[in-house]
């Protein structure tokens, strides 16, 4: 097998605009500038990026708390949508000109990104590039954790923290597609309304409601069968109290505490499972398996009439710092997306 990088493609520019992290810090460390295009490995495709999604892990990387795995681009950006402009020598199932969305291993905040072919999905028909770029990172995360690891089944009640954010929105929609019942936790009436539009059967306002009591009322005393938690800290005990027997809690972040006092007797009595995972360091094979599951079981639902697409806040790529400030303000619902000049010509900002 040929393992050397594919030689430069003559029709492509030598340089591209990117957003670099100049030092660990606040949004101001995100700086625009030129860089050579990435090398293309045999199993990768080169995507002319139209839009790049902004995700919680980008903020953590910018702050210096989430380093790229070995071999990954040091540029931020874990998801993109755009057009394939070059194929690595071993790629067979994709073609130049394909309109795609992809989970990257880094390097999405750029005009071109090299992505393993197994992490590329077709952009949904009639979706803008911005809408497509908003999907991969959160859908891969939720599919890996809630669907594949925790075995989500139809009819289950799923408690979803941060319901109006990127992970939360994905969890609501994936839960609904698979015939289970999402209960979203939010901090405002506006975010509650957004989650209901996405498919939440009930919402809980964490600033005014008792979460355990509200879960008990909504589930007629049953409790929730699955929990998607990104809060951590004191929320761990709340989750356990809200769980039904045999429930599974998936921990995808620890926004309010990396450690917790866990009521172990209650966990034992209820027979609970608590699992944790981060997506980025997973192997190419694991990411390809997640992509297959999304393509086979979830993407068909997006073509159905009335499918609700996520709310978007769009920024030009060069204004990535403003996009990070918005995410840190927690004022947004849905996803934040960066558009390159190529993308802005098709999806106006
Ligand atoms: N494990 C993985 O592989 C993986 C993958 C992707 C993301 N993540 C992590 O998941 C977390 C969420 O990412 P995201 O892209 O969904 O972010 P996001 O769009 O900003 O959503 C976060 C949501 O959580 C709520 N929230 C509650 N307490 C919060 C707090 N203390 N700080 C921030 N938000 C809080 C926010 O709304 P309210 O404040 O209104 O409640 C917001 O709706 C991040 O920490 C990210 O690193 C993990």
Shape: globular
Number of helices: 11
| Low-confidence runs | none
CATH topology of the largest domain: Quinone Oxidoreductase, Chain A, domain 1
Q: Main beta sheet, described?
A: 7 strands, mixed
Average pLDDT, all residues: 95
Would you mind describing this structure in some detail?
It is a single chain. The chain is α/β, with parallel strands linked by helices and 349 residues long. It has two domains: 15-135 and 284-346, Quinone Oxidoreductase, Chain A, domain 1 (Alpha-Beta Complex), CATH 3.90.180.10; 139-276, Rossmann fold (3-Layer(aba) Sandwich), CATH 3.40.50. 31% of the residues lie in helices and 26% in strands. The protein has eleven helices and 15 strands. The chain has helices at residues 56-63, 129-133, 136-149, 166-177, 189-198, 211-218, 235-242, 264-270, 284-302, 320-329, 341-346; strands spanning 15-21, 30-36, 44-54, 79-87, 99-103, 112-116, 120-122, 157-160, 181-186, 202-205, 224-229, 243-251, 273-276, 312-316, 335-339. The strands form three sheets. Strands 3, 4, 5, 6, 7, 14 and 15 form a seven-stranded mixed sheet that branches. The chain has a six-stranded parallel sheet with strand order 10-9-8-11-12-13, sandwiched between helices. Strands 1-2 form a two-stranded antiparallel sheet. Strand 11 (224-229), helix 7 (235-242) and strand 12 form a beta-alpha-beta unit. Helix 3 crosses helix 4, helix 3 packs across helix 9 (284-302) and helix 6 (211-218) packs parallel to helix 7. The model has no long low-confidence stretch (mean pLDDT 95). The structure holds NADP nicotinamide-adenine-dinucleotide phosphate. NADP nicotinamide-adenine-dinucleotide phosphate binds at residues 55-57, 60, 137, 141, 162, 164-168, 186-187, 191, 230-231, 252-253, 255-256, 277-279, 327, 330.
